[in-house]
Amino acid sequence: SQQGEEDPQALSIQEGENATMNCSYKTSINNLQWYRQNSGRGLVHLILIRSNEREKHSGRLRVTLDTSKKSSSLLITASRAADTASYFCASVPDSNYQLIWGAGTKLIIKP
Amino acid sequence: DTGVSQDPRHKITKRGQNVTFRCDPISEHNRLYWYRQTLGQGPEFLTYFQNEAQLEKSRLLSDRFSAERPKGSFSTLEIQRTEQGDSAMYLCASMREWVNEQFFGPGTRLTVL
Predict the structure, then answer these.
(1) What residues in chain B have per-residue pLDDT under 70?
(2) Residues 6 or more apart whose Cβ sits within 8 Å of residue B72
């Protein structure tokens, strides 16, 4: 069953603004991953942050991890219409390699 | 295109019928996962294979569901006696063991009437 939670459930912003999504998880993790899913398409891996890392960047993406709060955030800077998608976090427990998914944040970028 | 393919992309069936889906992973990936996703939710783990061995099955996976990966390459997921509650997107993903990234196929959308 899903153990992750994400907020907000939906986010609508103007193109060019920054979008921040948050994720919480329950168990001790090895790493946490963020994926994007466009309407009608499969999930695409965006970025992975390990449990001993606090922040990671990839292009316009910035991910933070706070293991004491069991939470992570994904920041997309200078959003574009093409960023419109659902974003999911998936935590990977220490005990096994099985992704535990959140329910996702639906992001809409208005032109 | 991630390199993982699924067939068919859409399947409409009547309640009580059997359906089978196929997944072709990236060739050098030894792990293959099946997930189910319903609208507005994240994927739910169903089962996974390492090579041809099925190592874990979710408690969600009823006896009507069976998956195989006979030669450690492609995999099939069969649902027998389909029910309306089986309507969902069925996702397949593959990865190399110890490499922390799963590559997903486009999914098979099942509609049970």
Answers:
(1) none
(2) B30, B49, B51, B52
From residue A7, alpha-carbon distances to A25, B53, B60, B76 in Å are: 12, 37, 25, 35
Confirm or reject contact between B103 and chain A (CB < 8 A). Answer: yes
Residues near B83 by beta carbon (within 8 Å), at least 6 away in sequence? B15, B64, B112
CA A68, A72, B103, A98 dihedral sign is: positive
- Inter-chain CB proximity B4 and A1 less than 8 Å: no
Tokens at B31, concatenated:
């792990």
| AA identity, residue B45 | F
Sort out which chain B residues have CB atoms less than 8 A from A42's CB and list them: 2, 4, 91, 104-107
Which of A43, A58, A98 to mutate against chain B (most B CBs within 10 Å)? A43
B91 and B107 in contact (C-beta within 8 Å)?
yes
Residues A75, A59 contacting (CB under 8 angstroms): no
Q: Read off the pLDDT of residues A23-70 as tens digits, 9 standing for 90 and up.
A: 999 989 999 999 999 876 789 999 999 999 999 999 999 999 999 999
- CB < 8 Å to B56, chain A: 96, 98
Most B CBs within 10 Å: which of A23, A36, A45, as the mutation test of the B interface? A45
